[in-house]
Amino acid sequence: MTEERFGEALPRVATPVPGPASRRLAERLAAVESRNITRLEGEPPIFWVAARGANVRDADGNVYVDLTSGFGVAAAGHANPRVAAAVGAQAATLAHGLGDVYPPEVKVRLLERLAALAPGDLGVGILASAGAEAVEAALKTAVLHTGRPGVVAFTGGYHGLTYGALATTWRGEFRRPFMTQLYAGIRFAPYPHPYRWTGPGDPVEGSLEAVAQLFDEAEGTDSPIGAVVVEPIQGRGGIVVPPEDFLPRLRRLCDERGAVLIFDEIYTGFGRTGRWFACEHTGTVPDIMTVGKALTGMLPLSAAIGRPTVMEAWPPSMGEAIHTSTFLGNPIACAAALAHIEEIEAGGLVERSARLGARLRERLEGWRERYPAVGDVRGAGLLQGVELVEDRASRRPASELAARVVGGALRRGVLLLSEGPDANVLAFVPPLVITEDQLDHAVGVVEEELAAAMP
Fold first, then answer.
1. Integer Cα distance of 354 and 344 in angstroms
2. What's the pLDDT score for residue 454?
3. What is the pLDDT of residues 65-89, one digit of tens each?
4. Is the per-residue pLDDT at 334 higher than 70?
5. Would the pTM of this model clear 0.90, i.e. be above it?
6. Fewer Cβ within 10 Å of end Cβ, the chain: N or C?
7. Is the pLDDT confidence value at 4 over 70?
C-alpha cells in the first residue's frame, strides 16, 4: 500500500493483533503510567503510530479502518492536511499567549466564528481545554445567573470526570470512589430512553414529570435547582436518541422554572449527527451549549457558548479573571479549530454525514431480522448504535457478545468501540470523510464477526 492511499485504504493486517511491538510497548507503559488509565490486563491494546483520513497504523505496521474517529474527534479525518498546516504555521508564528491578560489575535477570530455558527443567539463564549472544563464553565455560569446552585442531570449522562463535571455524570463506577468529595446538590432524572424506559407511561411525560418533581423537592433546601444539563443525544450512555418532543418541552419547563438549560454537544457537535449541532434536529436552542472533541479535529480545545443575557452574569475582569487557565485560548488550538471548521464546511461534511448516515442506518436496520441478538438500532448521521441483547424478550444486555465482536473486528483491522453502561452497544462513529468502500468493508467485517460470535 502506498502512502498516497493511506487514509482511504482498506485494512491490512500483517501480524497477530496485538503484535509484538504493541506488546513491548504495553510492558513499558505498565512501568510508567498509573495502572488505572490504560487497560493492560489480559490482552494488551494496540499502540497507534500514525493516522490519516479513516485509517490508523499501529506499531506493528497493521492498518485499520477507524469506526471511532478517535472518540469522535477526527470529523474531517485524522491528520487532516488543512488543519495540520494551520497548526504548523501557527506554531511557527505564535505558539502561546497570555490568554486572559494579553490575548492572542486568533482567539478573537475563533470566538467570532463560533458565535456565527452556534444556533439561535448563542454568541458569548468561554474557551477551555477538555470538554469537562467547558461543562464546569457552564455550571459556574448558571449559578452566577440564577443564584441557585442545584443541578438536574440525567441517568446515562456523561459530562466528564473532573470533579465538577463528574458530579453530573451518571455512571456509578466513575462516581463511587469520590462520592464524599462531590457536590451533593446534583439530582438525576430519568433520560427518556425509548428502548429501555422502565417508568410508567410515555418516556417524555415521565422524564419531564421527574424533572419538575426534582425542582419542587429542591425548593427550600440549600441547593435549589438553577440549571439542567443534558445531552441532546447521549453518546457514552449508549447512542440514545430521545423522542423528538423531549428537548422542546424541556426548554419550556426550564423557562417556566427560571433555570438555565445546558446542552452538552461535546460528542454530537460539528456535523456528527448530520447537522452542525444535534439540537438543530428539533430547533431547540439552549441557554448554554458546550462543544469540544471535533472542534479542532486533533488538539485539546473546548468551549461553553451562551446567550449574552446569561453570560452577562459574569462580572467584568478587573485584571484577575475568576475563571481562567494558563492555556486558555491557546493560539495553536484556536488555529486548528478555525481550519477544522473551514474544512467541514468546504467539504460539505455535515451533509455527507447525513447522507452516509442514512445509508449506514438502512444497512444496520437490516440486522434486526438477520441477528436475534440485535435489540435496537438508533442514532443520527454518522453516530449510530446497535444494542446487543441476550434475548429480545428480557432485553438483558449482551456485554460479552459485544466484547467478542469488538475484539474480532480489531483482529481483522476494524476499530470499533462499545458504548452504554453495560458496554453492549456497538458504536459506529467513523470520520465524516470515510470512503463508501471503507465503510462498506468495515460494516461487513462487523456483520461477519457478529454472526460468528452469536451462540
1. 13
2. 86
3. 999 999 999 999 999 999 999 999 9
4. yes
5. yes
6. C
7. no
Domain boundaries, the chain: 20-80+348-453, 81-346
Pick from 316, 259, 328, 314: which is nearest to 287 by CA?
259
CATH of domain 81-346: 3.40.640.10
Q: 455 pLDDT band (50/70/90 cuts)?
A: confident
Task: Count the Cβ atoms, other than its own, within 10 Å of residue 36.
Answer: 7
Distance in angstroms (rounded) separating the CA atoms of residues 332 and 110: 11
193 burial via Cβ count (<10 Å: 0-12, 13-18, 19+): buried
Residues 179-227 have pLDDT tens digits of 999 999 999 999 999 999 998 889 999 999 999 999 999 999 999 999 9
Asked if the domains at 20-80+348-453 and 81-346 fall in one CATH topology, the answer is no
